[in-house]
Amino acid sequence: MDRMYEAISLFRRKKYDECIEKCTEILDSNPLDQAAWCLKMRAITQRVYVDDIETEDALESDIFDTNIVATAPRPGTSLKTSVASTSSNNLPFSARPRTSTGRPLTGIVRPGTQKRPGSTLESLKTSRPLTSQSSRAIRIGTAAMLSQKDGPFIQVSRLNISKYARDPCLSKPLFEYLFYCEGDVRNAMELAVLATQYCEFKDWWWKVQLAKCYVVLSLPREAEEQLRSALKQQNHVETFIRLSRIYTRLDQPLAALDVCKTGLEVFPNDVTLLVEMARLNENLENSSMSIRFYRSAVIEDAMNTESIACIGMYHFYNNQPELALRYYRRVLAMGAHSAELYNNLGLCCLYSQQLDLTLSCFQRALDLAIDPLIKAEVWYNLAHTALAAGDLELAILCLNICINADPTHAPAFNNLAVLHQKTGRKDLAKVYFQSAKNLQEDMEEANANLEILLKK
Q1: Terminal CA-to-CA distance of the chain, rounded, Å?
Q2: Residue 230: closest CA among 186, 185, 199, 275
Q3: Which helix (H) or strand (E) holds 135?
Q4: Given its phi and psi angles, is residue 57 left (phi above 0), alpha (psi -120 to 50 degrees) or beta?
C-alpha cells in the first residue's frame, strides 16, 4: 500500500499519532515532500486542537484592557451587575453558587478553559530574532521544512512567511499549526495579514483568523471590525458566536443577544446559537428566557448535555427536585460519570425523600472526586443529609472533614458554629462564626449569628 495513501487513511480515522509516524517515515526519505509535510502538520494540530470559541470567565479583568465601560450601567444591560429575579415562582439566582467572576454555576464544565500557549502575557514576550539561513544547499523557503531528529518539527524562525502566504493549500494548515501548537501569535498574525492581502480581502476565513489573533492580544475592537467584515462576505455560525463573545467581553450583553438573534434568522434553530443565548440570559439572571432557549436546544438536539443539566438545576432551585432528578438521570444514562453529577443526584434524592439512594450517590461522588474542593462540597452536602436524619454529631464530623479539605469554606464554618451553639459549646461557636466572617465578609448569616451570640 502506498505510504501516503495509508497516512491519509489514518488521518481520516483520527489516528493522529500513527499518521504522524507514517508522515515522518515519508519525510525521512524525502524531506521536501510538501504533501507529507502538510499532512503531518494537520495531524499535529488536530491532536492538540482546542475549541477556542468556548471561553470561561470572559469578564475576567485584564491588566492590558484599555476599553472603558460605564461604572454604573443600567440594570439588565451589564453582566457585572446582579439583578435578582422578581418572579414569584422563581428562586432568585443570587441564591445559587457562583464562580469567582460571578457567573452562576450550571453544573457543566465547558471545554477550552485550560490555559494554552499564546495567552496574552506569553504573546507579549519578546520573540527571538530571525536567524539567517543558508541557500547553498537548500532553496530559500524550504529550510523550515527540514526538521532534525529530537528537534522541532518546523523551525519557525526560518519560515518564509511571505512565500507560504501565497499558497492557499499550505497557508491555512500552517496558520493553525502556529496558532494552536506553537502559540506563536505574532507569526500567525503576520501570515494571516499577508494571506488576506494576497487574496484581495475576499476570503472571510482569514478575517476570522485575524480576529482570533486580535482577541488573544486583547484588541477586541479590531477583532469586531474583522468579524463584521467577514459576515458581509459569508454568514457562518462560528462568526456569529465569536462576535457575540467580543460583545460579552466588552460587557455589552444586549449587543451580544442582538448578534445571536441575527444569526438565528440566518440559521433557524441552530443549537449553538440557542445555547449561547441561553447562557447570556442566564448571566443576565433572566431565568425564564434562559430555560426557554435551553428547552429549544434540547428539542433540536436531545443529546445536548449542558442544556439538560441546566434545566435540571433550574427545577432544583425552584423546589422541584423530582423533575431535576429526571434530567440528571438522563445525563447519567448518556454516559456522563463525574463527581459533580453524582453530587447533584444525591441532593435531588435527598430533597425528594428518596433517602435510600442518597448515601449511595454521595459515596459514588466521593469515589470519583479528585479535587479537594469537590470533596469538600460533597462532605458539606453529607452534613445536610445527617441533619435530615437528626444526627448532629455526624453532621459535625462531616463539616470538620469538609473544612480539612477546604479551609476556606465559609458556609461550613457558619453551619459548624450553629451546631456547636445548639450543643452548648458557645466558645467554639463564637470562634467558628468569626472564622466564617473573616473568610466571607458579606456573609449575612455569619454576621447575624455572631451578633445574636454576643448579645446573649
Answers
A1: 88
A2: 199
A3: none
A4: left
SS3 content of the chain, % helix, strand, coil (to 5): 65, 0, 35
For residue 215, give the nearest of 181, 189, 253, 254 by alpha carbon.
189
Q: Which residue has the higher pLDDT, 71 or 146?
A: 71
Which pLDDT score, from 0 to 100, does residue 147 have?
47
Angle of CA points 266, 268, 270, to nearest 5°: 105
Half-sphere exposure of residue 292: CA atoms within 13 angstroms, side-chain side: 7
Residue 140, helix vs strand vs coil: coil
CA distance 297 to 290: 11
Give which of 91, 41, 113, 110 is closest to 309, Cα–Cα.
Answer: 110
User: Which residue did the predictor score with more confidence, 87 or 279?
Assistant: 279
Q: What residue type is assigned to position 205 of the chain?
A: W
Residue 101 contacts residue 57 (beta carbons within 8 Å) = yes
Q: Can you tell me whether residue 68 is helix, strand or coil? A: coil
DSSP 102: S
pLDDT tens digits, one per residue of 38-61:
999 999 999 988 877 765 444 444
3-class SS of residue 288: helix
What are 162's strand-pairing partners?
A: none
CB 227 within 8 A of CB 243: yes
Q: How far apart are CA 78 and CA 72, in angstroms?
A: 9
**Interaxial angle between packed helices 392-405 and 372-388, expressed in degrees from 0 to 180 and rounded to the nearest 10:** 170
CB-CB contact of 288 with 314 (8 Å): no
Contacts of 153 (CB under 8 A, 6+ apart): 40, 41, 44, 147
* Chain centroid offset of residue 335 CA: 21
Q: Which residues of 108-137 are buried (b: 16+ CB within 10 A; e: fewer)?
A: beeeeeeeeebeeeebeeeeeeeeebeeee
Could you tell me the three cell numbers for 412? 461550613
